[in-house]
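ok so for the tutorial part 2 we go from a plain amino acid sequence to predicted structure tokens. step 1 is just haveing the sequence, like this:
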Amino acid sequence: MPRTARHTPGGYCYHVINRGVGRMQLFDDEGDYLAFVRVLGEGLGRHPEARLIAYCLMPNHWHLVFWPKRGADTVLSELMRRVGTTHVRRWHAHRHSSGGGPIYQGRFKHFPIQEDEHLLTVCRYVERNALRAKLVERAELWRWSSLWLRRHTGGMENEEQALQSLLVDGPVPLPRIWLALVNKPQTQAELDALRQSVAKGRPYGTSNWSERTADRLGITLRGPGRPKKTQ
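step 2 — the prediction. this is what the tokens look like for a chain of 231 residues:
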């Protein structure tokens, strides 16, 4: 039976991504990752209505998945502006390179997600990012992800404990075999559809839902065809 949202919040879930300028490495060591975790936690503390449900920090980019409360979709821009500017400022301060220019390739990219199996596909894509990049042998071993954070009850730094307290369950329940699913490779069709949404900001869901959502949000669906539902 298809998994559906627990309820309809009136807004959308969103995948958000940004990369280092010229694919520059954003995180060199544990301290760099923890610094971003702290910034993200501080931002969510100011904007708890954004509701973070999944994330993964990679050496030169990061993925975040949000489930804003009703009417709070626009808070993402303020949250990401705060996270981005604070992270850049602290990144330069740590390296004594204040005024050294941008570290991100530009403004963050994002796209809305249908609250059904499509949301689970996106969260799975995000949480297996390090495994797909062959940085770990199993997805749950990558410390800088929501999958790792959800599975730990101790041995964390203060920044991780703070972010863990702000991580919420999404509108679609995770299946009991979630860990096995995240560690299972996704199909090429799933990856292609997701990457198209990342690149073009197009809604990720069934064709009908994507078209309705694009019309509502003023998004132009470019390129051949329409987003298709993935299995």
